[in-house]
Sequence to fold (222 residues):
Amino acid sequence: MRRNPFALAVVWLLAMALALAEAAFVLGGAGVIGGPEAAAWRLEAIQRVGVAPAMTDWMLENRSLPPDLLLRFAGYAFVHDAPLQALFVVVLVAGLGRTLAARMGGGAILAIFVLGAAGGGLGYALAGLDAQLLVGGLPAVFALLGAFAALLVAGQIPAGLLRVRALALIALAVALRVALGLWVEDGARWSADIAGFVTGALLAAVLRPGGWRALRGRVRHG
Fold:
């Protein structure tokens, strides 16, 4: 199946945006750009875009949706705690994105990345398992992984043993993420990744080719 050039462009733009944001933090921290104050760029960005349970608590209590708080649910995915984390996310976005580009449009991939990040952030905040600020693109990466899983289940990935192995690997990746989060990591960021995975899978079920038509058919005959 030929890849959609526009979808590929969206993938590379996402990867570049993530890489450029991290490059600015690294170069600023090294004193190459921005002057003395640039050393604090990463910390300032984390404070500006990080997601925390207190945010959703405040919005629910006040029945208010301030734009600056809503933007955090997408913006946090472009700020990372460390360069290695950012590199890991960029590589996975490029790899998963290129695979999805063969089967989905650029708008769908962008929606899955952004709304998957938002779903991950919302799940993390509502769960209230960790008071720390959530940053990083892993929930968006898991959303792309969830979308890939949805395509596998829908039969839009080549059939046979390849599909079975891919589903097994995805299940293993999700299980390992939960295990690492529970027994190794300090905090509950794993809850954001799992919420992102579920969000991506649900979105892909609708945004995949023929997905909306299939959903309408089920509603009509349901």
